[in-house]
Amino acid sequence: MSKHAAGPEIQRMIDLIARLPGLGPRSARRAALFLLKRQEALLRPLAEAFADAADRIERCDQCGNLDTQQPCGICRAGERDDGVICVVEDVPDLWALERAGVFRGRYHVLGGVMSALDGVGPEDLTIGLLVERVRDTAPREVILALNATVDGQTTAHYIADQLEGTVSNVSRLAHGVPVGGELDYLDEGTLATALRSRRGV
């Protein structure tokens, strides 16, 4: 479909959808046509949901999560453990941990990781706010739950250095063989990390 085949409103819709991660122009055209064929059942409710989200959802001042209240529901929850802060790269990582239901402490969202290639430094993230928060609240542990990438590990080491002397225990997620994983199917980096992180049985 050429740009001239669709009206300007439809083309604008396609161009905006194409900006979403994992979608190119062809996928965006398919998605736009799918929505347009289902205007009452899907397009209008979706547009209303987007408008409502744009008006009401904001970042939590305390942890950086997205919510319609300030502070967010997790920060307001009284039954959570104030003594443990889990540091994550971005909101999807926080949501993943919440889905797993394995962490009941507090969170801190960095908003990304340090990357020399992308020009992202510590000042572009919420590392300074994290250090202030740790000094103010004195948790017993800070968990660095960052992705096992070069940038993620560089950021973790930087944060650990910044927190030195302010918290007694800074830990990070274990990396290695996933539950149910077979050694033959794992990449060399995962195997090497798993071997280095071995522990007693």
Q: Tell me the number of strands.
A: 6
Mean pLDDT: 90
Instruction: Give the name of the CATH architecture of the largest domain.
Output: 3-Layer(aba) Sandwich
Order of helices and strands: HHHEEHEHEHEHEH
Instruction: Kindly report the CATH topology of the largest domain.
Output: Dna Topoisomerase Vi A Subunit, Chain: A, domain 2
Structure description:
The longest helix is centred in the first third of the chain and has 18 residues, at 39-56. The chain has a 4-stranded parallel β-sheet. The chain is globular. By secondary structure, the chain is of the alpha/beta class. It has 8 helices and 6 strands, in the order H-H-H-E-E-H-E-H-E-H-E-H-E-H. It has 2 domains: 8-56, Helicase, Ruva Protein, domain 3 (Orthogonal Bundle), CATH 1.10.8.420; 80-172, Dna Topoisomerase Vi A Subunit, Chain: A, domain 2, CATH 3.40.1360. Helix content is 44%, strand content 10%. It has helices at 8-17, 25-37, 39-56, 73-76, 91-100, 127-137, 150-163, 188-196; strands spanning 58-59, 66-67, 84-88, 106-109, 141-145, 170-172.
What's the short version?
This protein is α/β, with parallel strands linked by helices. It is built from 8 helices and 6 strands; from the N terminus they run αααββαβαβαβαβα. Helix 1 packs across helix 2 (25-37).
